[in-house]
Specification:
The structure is a homodimer.
Chain A lengths: L1 E5 L23 E2 L5 E2 L1 H12 L4 E7 H11 L4 E5 L5 H14 L8 E6 L2 E3 L1 H15 L5 E6 L9 E5 L5 E8 L4 H9 L3 E10 H11 L5 H6 L9 H4 L7 E6 L3 E3 L3 H6 L5 E3 L2 E2 L7 E4 L5 E4 L4 E6 L2 E6 L7 H5 L7 E4 L2 E9 L2 E8 L8 E2 L4 E8 L1 E6 L2 E6 L3 E4 L5 E5 L3 E8 L9 E2 L5
Parallel strand pairs in A: 1-4, 1-6, 4-5, 8-12, 14-16, 15-17, 16-18
Antiparallel strand pairs in A: 2-3, 6-11, 7-13, 8-11, 9-10, 9-11, 10-12, 18-19, 20-21, 21-22, 22-29, 23-30, 24-27, 24-29, 25-26, 25-28
């Protein structure tokens, strides 16, 4: 199976765990049988591998997510990097061209496209495989998954099939309706449109060439910024006559709000949290290293991260967006390709961060114009390079770097350090990459 | 007026803002007209000064509170330091001897004793002055304040006066009753015992000499550890026939729980906090430097500090003690005589703290046996002394100190630094003071 997972942009609906650079699909919140926690993207990737160990998984995403994807899924997963956000049609066209020109997938093979974050069991991925086979067997140019509605939701688009068979032609599509209209649709046998579909690779490649002037994947990648923003629905689905839909009646949840997310959590508490015996339907997700005590609460979610603290009635949590849009916060924690960092202190004229480098990884060789830096290694071993001078370092070593000085650190083992930045205008933009001299 | 404020021990009832070394009376939670916040002890001290600018205020307390008292009230306030906790009779005897032998107060002057943390208006302190005058005029050997009950509380002891006059002799004292008994007491004209009383200095001094073998304040201070723990009620009040009580009907609150404390707060939010429009009777006290968002909550208090986070139904908050007794937390923030520190990161083998030294202040000259330290100055100017070597320092300077090395820092201006501690067994006990060599 060739599967493209669309890994959507960031969002603040799960603030303070999601922010402008950290998307909800990377929050480690689901307990595995081993007792460890996994994120949505890790869960989905594991489920796909369980169903089809040879599945060719490609994640269509933007640059900001690449580090998190490699950290969570390893180096082997395919990534179709979108140089900028251009809506779903360019993204799917690019991922399809990537499969063809980079991964060498034949034009005759089927491709399944699916969001990266459904909360489902493995029957869903079995259905995805069936979906791919239907496309492979030319059932239609596009084969959609239609999810059996469990209530008249106003949140989803609806697919009206022409018949009641497991697989049938699509009669019409309907936009998100009000509840009354949703009931009418369901009475007619309508299905939810979960944004999941399959096609033969050559079909989307042909549509892409009709709508965009490009030679191959590399050319498309280079001119990606010049493309018009347009959705796959608008560009392809609405103009296609040959569309089939396959029914899916298994578990399917869209964990887009704290309310739905906590419903899927196995445990009430992730991280340090204490609930008194009078708490009812309370969930705590605490990423801070301090205790969090809840007493006498009902239907409440509490989430704490270096970015902030949310305490919300679960039903009210879906209205979070306008409040967090007004929070103009510094990003306090970020995963990078080489590890992670956490902001510990911000003062006028200084910022102190804790840096964790994964074993074998290193920062880019870089310099800053407007700040000096001091590193104090607190654990691990590695090598620093400062203006070309190499030095082996371990816990207790201190490295001082003036503004303008080129520097990097290479971790031999996992390595942690405290970085004190000193200067008048400290900014992530004040960073200049250099060719390695080491 | 000579007034002794009993500044009680630490407690965790207002966790995470109060802890083993930080008592509730030092939490800055009350908004002043200037827009700044003041603590209970600052509020009480200001109110006393407003009523009697010349009042001689002595705070009877233990060593752990001295830094906080000087930081919050300045250097002028009298402190009767209890070398250890020995209950109220030894504490009041010591404070009385302190007033006589250190402050030079005459034996014929009256002394008023009062807890450090009542939430009251200035009429209360006017009443204290009256109480002192009653003692001065020999109305009785002990003159108590009796608070007019507003409900049949089970939390207070009761005083049954012999008559209904403003000042009358005490008939009997009653222990904390159940609600039904409290109603009966109130029907008989009983008053709450708020632990406030006045006496002539020589009266308590005489009692003290009868019960304890000591010469003067200095002698009493030296043998304080050998004294038996005994309450003032048990040692003095129960054996005294000449006791008067003065009625007080003004505002009086005992802010011992989050529920009662938040009732006294002028504003819903202290620190960074956002309440959505559906929150009802919600209070936020956030000492962290990150936003805290509350949505759809009712009758809830949320409090966040470097020590932890509490989210509690207000009524339930009075049952906090067993939960926080089980939290075996590191103290993450502390005020010291020279400034304050905050723990930013704890790892096996290292701890990183932020230190703020007030202008003109310095640490003790000290060393550690089992840890190295690295200081990175982030703001201000001062002088470090390391094994006798002096060095002027300012932002950006880095000082490294091996285990065993004697060191201190003297702040010229307010000075902030990041201290990285490195070692196997990092503990506050690993600290050895030395005579200054500078």
């Amino acid at each position: 199976m060739n599967i493209v997972l669309l890994s959507g942009g960031s969002g603040k609906r799960l603030w303070p765990l999601s922010n402008d650079i950290r998307s909800k699909q990377f929050i480690k919140i689901f307990k595995k049988e081993t007792g460890e926690y996994e994120s949505m993207v890790q869960r989905v990737y594991r489920q796909i591998r369980n169903i089809d160990a040879d599945a060719k998984v490609t994640i269509a995403t933007s640059k900001t997510q690449v580090s998190a994807i490699h950290n969570q899924l390893g180096a082997d997963v395919g990534i179709s990097l979108e140089p900028c956000r251009r809506d779903t049609f360019p993204a799917i066209a690019l991922a399809t061209a990537y499969l063809h020109d980079v991964q060498g997938v034949s034009e005759e093979e089927a491709v399944v496209v699916c969001p990266v974050d459904p909360y489902v069991d493995e029957s869903y991925f079995k259905a995805l495989k069936d979906l791919g086979e239907l496309a492979q067997n030319d059932t239609a140019n596009l084969v959609l998954m239609g999810i059996e509605p469990t209530y008249p939701s106003e949140k989803y688009g609806y697919i009206i099939p022409s018949g009641k068979e497991n697989v049938s032609q699509v009669d019409t599509f309907k936009e998100k309706p009000d509840e009354k209209t949703a009931k009418e649709y369901i009475a007619k046998g309508a299905l939810w449109n979960g944004g999941v579909f399959a096609y033969k690779l050559k079909y989307v490649l042909k549509r892409a060439h009709e709508l965009i002037d490009f030679k191959d994947y590399y050319d498309l990648f280079d001119k990606y910024e010049t493309l018009t923003k347009i959705s796959f629905d608008y560009a392809v689905v609405e103009n296609e006559k040959s569309i089939a839909v396959m029914r899916f009646a298994g578990e399917w949840k869209d964990l887009g709000t704290w309310n739905t997310l906590t419903e899927a959590m196995e445990e009430s508490v992730v991280g340090k949290g204490i609930l008194d015996e009078t708490c009812e339907n309370v969930h705590v997700i605490n990423e801070l290293d301090v205790p969090l005590l809840c007493m006498g609460l009902k239907d409440v979610v509490v989430s704490a991260s270096p970015d902030g603290i949310l305490v919300s009635d679960k039903n009210k949590s879906s209205y979070i967006k306008p409040y967090v849009d007004n929070i103009d916060g510094q990003i306090m924690y970020a995963e990078k390709s080489w590890g992670s960092y956490r902001v510990m202190d911000v003062e006028e004229g200084s910022m102190t961060i804790k840096v964790t480098l994964n074993a074998g990884h290193q920062m880019n060789y870089h310099s800053h114009e407007r700040r000096d830096e001091v590193w104090t290694i607190i654990s691990g071993t590695g090598k620093t390079v400062v203006d070309g001078m190499e030095q082996t370092v371990s816990a207790g070593d201190v490295i001082t770097m003036q503004a303008g000085c080129k520097h990097t650190i290479v971790a031999t083992t996992e390595l942690k350090l405290i970085e004190v930045q000193l200067g008048r205008e400290i900014s992530v933009d004040d960073k200049y990459k250099h060719e390695p001299e080491y």
